[in-house]
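Today's session is about reading a structure prediction critically. Students often jump straight to the picture, but the first step is always the sequence itself: look for stretches that repeat, for charged clusters, for runs of hydrophobic residues. Only then move on to the predicted structure, which in these notes is written as discrete structure tokens rather than atom positions. Here is the chain we will use throughout the hour.
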Amino acid sequence: MKKIILCTLCAMALVACNKPNQCTGNCADNCKKECKKECMEKAAITNIMTRVSVREFTGEKITDEQIDILLRAAMAAPSAINKQPWAFIVVKDEAVIKQLGEALPYSRCSNKPAIAIIPCGDLSKAIEGEMAAFWINDVSAATENILLAAHAMGLGAVWTGLHPDMNRAAMVQQMLGLPEHIIPLCVVPVGVPAEQPEVKDKYKAENIHYDRW
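Below is the predicted structure for this chain, in token form.
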């Protein structure tokens, strides 16, 4: 039997329901809604605050369902004018992951990740003219969603940069057979964590300015 844990709102509702003169008749339904809302808020914020970069993996495989969730999370990101100028290369072949690790030692692809995801900018979908570079913002948002989704599922991941180092980007383009209009932004190895990095509190009040500098 699963252990049932009641949040404060649930507990308060149950107390009210045990007292007829305080029960409105729908307090249980209200409790469920408020409890769900509170739990979702806490879970989302906790996930953001506790995400860490994982660079060591066990080599254990992950499922296609998990990969699908990562990609759906990526494509749930915002993008300028909703252009969605992105493409994602999912590398599952161990030989190719090893090749990435040898060519890009900093990418941690030699550390036994289950997969490597390469978020890319698709310039054929980008905004035209001087705003074309917004694809970098859009694909960065998608990459962060991958990291958060991985953490939420108990997986580990780390963002390792390519763009704007064109030598690195060109190396990956050639290795993976990417057309010229597909620009790899970064390499994200994902897998079952073999380490538990300490969560860092990066909040610094001096970085905050209200209304003006």
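Discussion point for the tutorial: The helical segments are 8-17, 27-50, 64-74, 94-103, 134-152, 166-176.
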